[in-house]
């Protein structure tokens, strides 16, 4: 039986230290009510040049807004790695872009190419192919670039994306350019070798194994050089950082500053996922991951400096589908071998045009609702959790949700600030009594949960925990509904009908990441 106590934000000492650091950090704010705080990965065409918007507008990782509508896929063609991270166990996929404990089916470039065509035909909103493991793509350059070569010939409308630890990145920038890879992610967890030595026990570089501070220094220099070279070449760079409380959590503010000054487009701070059963150094020595509010505080801290990604799902090296859904099991090698694959770019384009229409309707609905908040004055901010299966709508039942999307509501509007994985409450048509407390703990910092439908029992328990179940916006757009809810909430506070109370902290459900794998 897990404990049911909720952790108040004020009870977490490291979080307070982090907030102090934030206050010192010039340019950072906790994303005030200016509305400009939306310059996170939810940024739109008004926030960037037309060329950049063209690159990000249907990339589900580079645009939060796009991730409700467009899908990505990974092909696991890169098994080897040239460094060791303390949060990684080589039995599993690279934890720099995947949650630990997940094993992907390895493919040859030829198998990968066929898989991409099969997925692109079945999922016309799949716009991006990424290579993110299971080891480091640039420690396997032949396989990685061969895969890009095959796909750029057969499916030129698909964007190519790459994720690396950065050690050999400077050696490959020219090749990356030559394949028109527009998006590269580098995992940078530190810019100070003193910090780095606690994350990386060794690297293998220029035919030699380096350890400790030397290893961390070389890695950091190579990562930052690679970043500079890529941004100079006009390639959009995202930096991933794993937040490891007590090791690099406060330092990530400096990492943020360093990568921003070198032209990174987006910073994705992800929680450490660490459990003894993963067999990693951190898992075995009891290193904890951050709480939901610790993660959010750090992301807020860095947001004044640059675009922050908050919708990363730490997906598998063979992930397929919208972020947050996992359709990889539909596309195993065995199944693909049995498929007759026909790549039809015209049908894909027609489908994507429909997606764009829906997307524009969503944006228009949000803007119209936002007008109703104009002139409202209040410091109140609150979080809501939303059950959704895509399209930017409240369209999932409470019991069927494997994650909740979290929005922060303020007079600036509704802003996506994260997601929480949960175990399914409804199993085989019945509510799982044991699961409900874990779901509640995952959204414990939220004032309300928006759902398409909810049963009587979870409704009562949520209310008892102080979370309002809201089903009156079923199948409506999320942001429009959230703004309408917030307007009502402010009115109720103003009339004295309710008293605004801050909520506590919430869990990042580590176990659920594994269960969903
Ligand atoms: Fe894949 Fe990464 Fe490209 Fe996206 S994932 S290589 S940038 S296409 Fe996206 Fe997945 Fe997070 Fe990565 S949600 S783990 S950030
Ligand atoms: Fe593991 Fe990825 Fe780190 Fe390599 S770079 S050790 S595969 S987490």
Number of strands: 18
| Anisotropy-based shape | globular
Rg is 22 Å
**Biggest sheet layout:** 8 strands, mixed
**Order of strands across the main sheet:** 10-9-8-5-4-3-1-11
Integer count of domains: 2
- The unreliable regions are 1-13, 22-40, 511-517
The CATH topology assignment of the largest domain is TIM Barrel
Distance between the termini: 23 Å
Number of helices: 16
Ions, cofactors and other bound molecules: FE(8)-S(7) cluster, iron/sulfur cluster
Mean pLDDT: 87
CATH homology group of the largest domain: Aldolase class I
Query: What is the CATH top level name of the largest domain?
Result: Alpha Beta
Instruction: Supply the helix-strand structural class.
Output: alpha/beta
Helix-residue proportion: 25-40%
β-strand percent reads: 15-25%
CATH architecture classification of the largest domain = Alpha-Beta Barrel
InterPro entries: Aldolase_TIM (IPR013785), Di-Nase_FeMo-co_biosynth (IPR003731), DiNase_FeMo-co_biosyn_sf (IPR036105), MoaA_NifB_PqqE_Fe-S-bd_CS (IPR000385), Nase_CF_NifB (IPR005980), NifB_C (IPR034165), rSAM (IPR007197), rSAM_sf (IPR058240)
Family: Belongs to the radical SAM superfamily. NifB family.
Pathway: Cofactor biosynthesis; Fe-Mo cofactor biosynthesis
Protein name: FeMo cofactor biosynthesis protein NifB
């Amino acid at each position: 039986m897990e404990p049911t106590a909720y952790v108040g934000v004020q009870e977490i000492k490291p979080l307070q230290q982090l907030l102090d650091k934030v206050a010192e950090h010039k340019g950072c704010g906790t994303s005030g009510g200016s509305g400009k705080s939306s310059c996170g990965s939810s940024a739109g065409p008004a926030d960037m040049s037309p060329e950049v918007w063209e690159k990000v507008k249907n990339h589900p990782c580079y645009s939060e807004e796009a991730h409700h509508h467009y899908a990505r896929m990974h092909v696991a063609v890169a098994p080897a790695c040239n460094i060791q991270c303390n949060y990684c166990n080589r039995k599993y996929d690279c934890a720099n872009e995947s949650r630990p404990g997940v094993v992907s089916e390895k493919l040859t470039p030829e198998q990968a190419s066929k898989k991409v065509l099969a997925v692109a035909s079945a999922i016309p909103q799949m716009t991006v192919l990424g290579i993110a493991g299971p080891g480091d793509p640039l420690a396997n350059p032949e396989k990685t670039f061969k895969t890009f070569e095959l796909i750029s010939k057969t499916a030129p409308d698909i964007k190519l994306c790459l994720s690396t630890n950065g050690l050999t990145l400077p050696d490959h920038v020219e090749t990356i350019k030559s394949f028109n890879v527009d998006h590269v992610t580098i995992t940078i967890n530190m810019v100070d070798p003193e910090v780095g030595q606690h994350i990386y026990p060794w690297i293998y570089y220029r035919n030699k194994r380096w350890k400790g501070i030397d290893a961390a220094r070389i890695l950091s220099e190579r990562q930052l050089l690679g970043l500079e070279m890529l941004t100079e070449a006009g390639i959009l760079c995202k930096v991933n950082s794993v937040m490891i409380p007590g090791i690099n959590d406060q330092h990530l503010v400096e990492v943020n500053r360093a990568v921003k000054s070198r032209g990174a487009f987006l910073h994705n701070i992800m929680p450490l996922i660490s459990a003894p059963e993963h067999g990693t150094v951190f898992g075995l020595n009891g290193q904890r991951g951050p709480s939901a509010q610790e993660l959010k505080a750090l992301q807020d801290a860095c947001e004044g400096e640059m675009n922050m990604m908050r919708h990363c799902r730490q997906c598998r090296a063979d992930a397929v589908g919208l972020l947050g859904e996992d359709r990889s099991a539909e596309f195993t090698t065995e199944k693909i071998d049995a498929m007759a694959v026909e790549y039809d770019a015209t049908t894909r384009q027609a489908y994507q045009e429909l997606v764009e229409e829906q997307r524009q309707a969503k944006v228009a609905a949000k803007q119209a609702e936002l007008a109703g908040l104009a002139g409202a004055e209040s410091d109140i901010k609150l979080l809501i959790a939303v059950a959704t299966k895509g399209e930017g709508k409240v369209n999932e039942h409470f019991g069927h949700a494997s994650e909740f999307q979290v929005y922060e509501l303020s007079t600036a509007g509704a802003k996506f600030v994260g997601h929480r994985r949960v175990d399914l409450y409804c199993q085989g048509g019945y509510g799982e009594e044991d699961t409900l407390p874990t779901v509640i703990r995952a959204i414990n910092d939220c004032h309300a949960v928006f759902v398409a439908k909810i049963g009587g029992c979870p409704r009562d328990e949520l209310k008892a925990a102080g979370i309002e179940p809201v089903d009156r916006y079923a199948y409506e757009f999320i942001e429009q509904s959230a703004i309408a809810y917030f307007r009502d909430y402010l009115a109720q506070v103003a009339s004295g009908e309710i008293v605004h109370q801050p909520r506590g902290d919430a869990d990042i459900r580590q176990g659920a990441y594994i269960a969903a794998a």
